[in-house]
């Protein structure tokens, strides 16, 4: 991101004092030049750490962005049937799935989205915890509601969208290291450094000297000189990164909501905005325990426990009255009837109860519906007693506080759901700009033909280094993993690099 004027200034700094006077060029102050070079070095480090993972996140994120279209293309033959005159009860459909997959348990049910739609059952292996990473090992089973017969299933471990989600969120470390937290923390660290990358990039791009009165090199790439000159690639890199910097920051910040350290800290702020009825609920089970892939802001809300009923129950639905023995549990049709009575639109899912005090959870939110446009304002949950079929409580999007609603809206925009196809196209454009900025940085590095890694030389001005480190520490308050890794880099440079000549030359410190 160095301009021609900045390059000349850096050349002047390295010349003897007599040459500086003969050149006739106004010499920049040592403090300004030192600050610029110090920022450039941190910008280089940030890019070195983040670009490989950022490229992976862009590719996997784009796959997930077009989830509705990909699923329709790959599984359309499983998701649509010819409607019949009558429909089979949901309890019979559930029993058909349980009979066909005796070594698995049903975790959730999604009723048909339309008259030609199918009932979708998510199943997990018995004895496996309901963690997000575990879902990639299980099936989605599609049942014809008119006949009660299983049409087929989707192996989620081979589904490209689920594979992309697993890589995007955890780098698939669950399979290799037995825990997804390592991948999640690595991604959080990379996102923290990417924020530093953008901030330092804006500083390097900021117009100086004669550039202040010209758009060339500021918002329009310069093309003078021989074809393929490094100045052109530097301008494309800087301009694309800066003009879309706020969009990139938006993706980074909304993505950080799901991280284990920064995301957890932000959740502590949101938790105080919940209604008192939910905040004081004694059950330790949270929405995220029932549905790990659910929305962000409501994920920490406690789920009310079920209680044993004594008398047989009767509930009305479209087919008439349902009766059952509470000791056997309410049939799935009773829960569907409650969803219909409560006015849930098509596209909701029912999470099955777990354990003696588990509760049916009816939920609708942008990520659960296979259609491309789902507004966050429609987000809603209801909890149904697994024995009596009675509604234990509800929560709507308006009840989670302004900050929580803003965060969930940000997540929906991040995932490309809030504004339908327009949201998807805008997000795709942003991803392409990020990839262009990453690619041009590699081209610039290659054209320099550096020795070693080509890192900019370190600045020996203690005041400049302390000032930059103080700014980075402020960011570290919000993003703790940035502070830890930043300190590790400083120690590495101060203690180790100078002791190994080859490493010092590679990092420009020799």
Write the layout of secondary structure elements.
Elements: H1 4-13, H2 17-22, H3 30-65, H4 67-79, H5 90-100, E1 104-110, E2 119-125, E3 139-143, E4 150-155, H6 160-170, H7 173-177, H8 181-205, H9 230-243, H10 245-255, H11 262-271, H12 276-279, H13 287-290, E5 313-317, E6 320-324, H14 332-341, E7 349-351, E8 359-364, E9 380-385, E10 391-396, H15 401-415, H16 420-448, H17 462-478, H18 480-496, H19 501-506
Antiparallel strand pairs: 1-2, 1-7, 2-3, 3-4, 5-6, 7-8, 8-9, 9-10
Helix pairs in contact: 3-6, 3-8, 3-16, 8-9, 8-10, 9-16, 10-15, 17-18
Mean pLDDT: 79
Order of helices and strands: HHHHHEEEEHHHHHHHHEEHEEEEHHHHH
User: Over all CA atoms, what is the radius of gyration?
Assistant: 28 Å
> What share of the residues does DSSP label as strand, in percent?
5-15%
How is the largest sheet built, in terms of strand order? Answer: 4-3-2-1-7-8-9-10
Q: How many DSSP H or I helices? A: 19
Q: Give a quick account of the main beta sheet: strands, pairing sense, barrel closure.
A: 8 strands, antiparallel
Termini gap: 23 Å
Stretches with pLDDT under 50, minimum 5 residues: 1-27, 128-137, 314-319
Helix content: 40-55%
Which geometry do the CA atoms define? elongated
Helix/strand-derived category reads alpha+beta
**Number of DSSP strand runs:** 10
């Amino acid at each position: 991101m160095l301009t021609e004027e900045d390059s000349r200034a850096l050349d002047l700094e390295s010349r003897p004092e007599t040459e500086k006077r003969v050149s006739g060029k106004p010499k920049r102050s040592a403090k300004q030049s030192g600050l610029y070079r110090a920022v450039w070095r941190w910008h280089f480090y940030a890019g070195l750490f983040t670009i490989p993972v950022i490229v992976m996140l862009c590719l996997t994120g784009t796959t997930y962005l077009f989830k509705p279209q990909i699923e329709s293309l790959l599984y359309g033959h499983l998701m649509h049937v010819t409607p019949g005159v009558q429909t089979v009860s949901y309890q019979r459909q559930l029993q058909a799935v349980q009979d066909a997959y005796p070594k698995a348990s049903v975790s959730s049910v999604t009723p048909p989205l339309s008259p030609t739609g199918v009932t979708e059952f998510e199943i997990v292996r018995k004895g496996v915890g309901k963690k997000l990473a575990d879902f990639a090992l299980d099936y989605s089973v599609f049942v014809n509601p008119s006949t009660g017969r299983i049409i087929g299933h989707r192996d989620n471990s081979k589904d490209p969208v689920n594979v992309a989600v697993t890589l995007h969120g955890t780098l698939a470390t669950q399979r290799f290291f037995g825990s997804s937290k390592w991948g999640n923390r690595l991604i959080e660290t990379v996102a923290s450094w990417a924020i530093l990358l953008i901030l330092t990039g804006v500083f390097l791009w900021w117009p100086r000297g004669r550039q202040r009165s010209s758009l060339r090199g500021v918002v329009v790439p310069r093309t003078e000189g021989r074809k393929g000159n490094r100045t052109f690639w530097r301008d494309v890199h800087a301009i694309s990164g800066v003009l879309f910097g706020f969009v990139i920051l938006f993706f980074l910040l909304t993505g950080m909501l799901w991280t284990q350290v920064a995301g957890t800290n932000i959740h502590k702020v949101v938790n105080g905005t919940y209604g008192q009825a939910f905040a004081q609920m004694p059950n330790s089970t949270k929405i995220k325990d029932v549905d790990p892939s659910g929305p962000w802001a409501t994920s920490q809300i406690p789920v009310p426990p079920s209680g044993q009923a004594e008398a047989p129950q009767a509930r009305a639905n479209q087919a008439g009255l349902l009766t059952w023995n509470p000791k056997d549990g309410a049939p799935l049709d009773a829960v569907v009837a409650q969803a219909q009575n409560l006015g849930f639109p098509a596209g909701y899912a029912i999470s099955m109860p777990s354990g003696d005090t588990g509760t049916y959870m009816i939920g609708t939110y942008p990520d659960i519906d296979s259609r491309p446009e789902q507004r966050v304002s429609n987000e809603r949950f209801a909890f149904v007693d697994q024995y009596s079929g009675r509604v234990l409580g509800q929560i709507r999007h308006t009840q989670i506080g302004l900050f929580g609603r803003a965060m969930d809206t940000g997540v929906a925009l991040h995932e490309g759901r809030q504004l339908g196809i327009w949201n998807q196209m805008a997000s795709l454009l942003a991803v392409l700009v990020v990839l262009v900025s990453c690619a041009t940085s590699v081209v610039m590095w290659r054209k320099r033909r550096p020795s070693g890694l080509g890192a900019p030389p370190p600045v020996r001005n203690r005041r400049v280094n302390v000032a930059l480190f103080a700014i980075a520490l402020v960011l570290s308050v919000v993003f703790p993993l940035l502070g830890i890794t930043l300190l590790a880099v400083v120690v590495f440079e101060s203690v180790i690099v100078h002791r190994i000549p080859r490493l010092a030359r590679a990092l420009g410190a020799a």
